[in-house]
Amino acid sequence: MLTDYHVHLRPDEPGTPAERHFTAENAERYREVAAERGIEELGVAEHVYRFTAALDVWQHPLWVQSAQDDLDRYCDFVRDETDLKLGIEADFVPGREERMRELLEERDFDFVVGSIHFLAEGALDYDKYDVWNSGRSADHIWRTYFTWLGELAATGMYDILAHPDLVKHWGREQRPWPEKDLRFYYDLAMEQIAESGIAIEVSTAGLRKPVGEIYPDAAFLEMIVDAGNPIALSSDAHTPDQLGYEYDKALELLDAVGITELAVFDRRARRLEPIG
Ligand SMILES: [Zn+2]
Ligand SMILES: [Zn+2]
User: Fold this and answer.
1) How far is the CA of 6 from the centre of ligand 1 (A)?
2) Which one of 124, 154, 169, 204 has the largest count of C-beta atoms within 10 Å of its C-beta?
């Protein structure tokens, strides 16, 4: 079994309205490419902030600008017009956990992908609101990111922890990089990750980003394997051709750290299936 659960039915850019992308034909394009690449378990996880309901949770300028679509219409579309698993990519916004929890619990998702894209107002992977303009050191930004990552896991609101070391998005050349061994930062999150049992995403999206590496890196993944958390494999595709992106590299990494099973979700119940 191969999975791709962290999939978007449209690019992040504005001008990609639901009417054009939340269609049975578009879902079928994704299903066809997934089938060609041996991916049976396919699920979609649209960004929560593209739905108006997210404005009850947070009103970051990007969210205000992006919140155009109706969340219940998206859920009905995936359930009624596609054979895809129904997921959502929901940010962890400290202080707004209860509002986000309500939004998530009111719908019958198969899985919820939890992400940190922002540290307060600053974005980790979007230069328009760049967190690195804050003047904070790499040590401060990495510490904050991994402290929050542990808190995300501890909420119990999320089934999958997305792109676990997204803070490295820009790579060593384009932004400051910490001097410490990176395991120091991973350690800040590990106790809560281990206790929560949350599934950890291995995402090939990082290979398409300036850093040019899988999320998470091998040292972090080894710590996760020692902790015993299950693994969810995804590409974070935003177009059909990105499905299963460079999965051969991900499978090599999984094999190297001794992972033989992947997490599979159904109405927020999890089971493990052998990789293959
Ligand atoms: Zn994301
Ligand atoms: Zn995503």
Assistant:
1) 9
2) 204
Cα–Cα dist 22/54, whole Å:
18
CATH number at residue 147: 3.20.20.140
Measured distance CA(229)–CA(164) in Å, rounded: 13
- Residue 276: is its pLDDT beyond 90? no
User: Does the structure show a pLDDT above 90 at 15?
Assistant: no
Closest ligand (CA of 6): 2
**Tokens standing for residue 56:** 């009850």
The rounded Å distance from CA 7 to ligand 1 centre is: 10
Q: Rounded to whole angstroms, how far apart are CA atoms 186 and 181?
A: 10
Residue 153, domain extent:
3-274
Name 128's Cβ contacts closer than 8 Å, sequence gap at least 6.
62
Q: Ligand 2 mean position to 164 CA, how many Å?
A: 12
User: Could you give the number of structural domains in the chain?
Assistant: 1
Which residues have C-beta under 5 Å from ligand 2, the single-atom ion?
89, 236
Distance CA 165, CA 185 (A): 10
Q: Which of the ligands is closest to the CA of residue 116?
A: 1
Nearest ligand to residue 215 Cα: 1
pLDDT digits over 37-58, tens only? Answer: 999 999 999 999 999 999 999 9
- Residue 162 Cα to ligand 1 midpoint, Å, equals 7
